[in-house]
Amino acid sequence: MGTQRFAHVTTRRGVLQGAAVLSAGAVALLAGQPATAAKMSKGGNSARDVSTLNTALALEHEGINAYTLGAQSNLLDKQVLTVAVKFQDDHKAHRDKLIQVIRMLGGTPVKEKSLAEYAKELDVARLKTQADVLDFAAGLEKGAVNAYLGIIPAFSDGQWAKLAGQLATDEREHFTVLTQALGRALPAPLGFGA
Prior knowledge:
Elements: H1 2-18, H2 24-30, H3 34-41, H4 46-72, H5 78-104, H6 115-122, H7 130-149, H8 158-167, H9 169-181
């Protein structure tokens, strides 16, 4: 189980790193600064940004559906389910922001797959206990943190690198809560983005 989970995490990170890098204007849009984004988008490469944003959107769709599958597993006790729903809501907010930015850039948001497709791709049939579900979710969240952190070095302006780092904050928070719920130690300092 662990090998499959980490292979999927590596894929999530690689997908964002392998995609085109977001422009500072797109990051400004994601960070809720449309006026700044408008100033920066003049002469920018919005097609590249749309492609990268759609990659991130596909990952958010996956995260939302992973939490749905975890909730439908009937393996989570009530308190854990409440936290999972909160995390799913965060991913929905990320999804909605990405869709908004993609449309503002004149692009078409990537479509969400069916729940059955995500269940098969994520191999959720292997999840047999609450700990399995938490471990699975922690792996996805760690992958998301690393994927978002992976784009930071591409920015020449430290202000935009900071904003990209802020986008990874929610994912890191989710990972931390899930790791603690599993009774595991948190990663060593600088344990992300490597």
